[in-house]
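Supplementary notes (optional reading)

For those who missed the lab, this is the record we used. Protein: Ankyrin repeat domain-containing protein. Length: 245 residues.
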Amino acid sequence: METLDSQDPLALTVTEAIRTGDLPTLRQCLAEHPGLATARIVEQDGDAAGSRSLLHIVADWPGHFPGGPAVVAMLVAAGADPNARFDGAHSETPLHWAASNNDVLVLDALLQAGADIEAPGAVIGGGTPLADARGFGQWRTAHRLVELGARTTLQDAATLGLSDRVKVFVEGPEPADHDAVTRAFWGACHGGQLATAAYLLEHGADLDWIGYDDRTPLDIARAMDADAVVRWLLDRGAKGRAELP
């Protein structure tokens, strides 16, 4: 397997071809450089330091590159592994990245090519692509993953407003504990899911729990412009982090 520095001329050419959907140039690069489809592109410095596959580049931030599904198909046909791992601060697959960027088209293309919908390694708790989509508020890819059969945790289900699944977690044979219900409540506020938030509060969730990024449920609802949830929380005396000890 070839390893290329991100500033290598070939790496720059193939990256540009992928990001612009330039299939003729990508096809030529793959033909002239056997093994390129499985190459690793290495970024030496900064937050992105580590090595990634060419499929990671298709799914990289901000996503939605022209011709993304066709690029995925060409790379996979040339030997790229749809389950390749990032090697660095985390071990995400290209599917994690597509989920994190709300890129449904590339997500579908990766799954069609054999990507593992339950692959662990997300920056959100080491979880699946759904954990990334949910954690970053990428609702289209989150719902698409559920539609295609991704397993949901209580927090996934609450954040997406999947009330039937939430009830199974809370009232089923092995009911979720208080901490899990509280985290799910925070998630419901993040997702703007008023009915789910109300249900979880009735089942003992902590109204002012401080969650991700040092935010309370009220803080995250405000950040997501979930106005109905914000009003409902304020009516119940919810506080932002700045108001708490």
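If you only remember one thing from this example: The first helix runs from residue 9 to 20.
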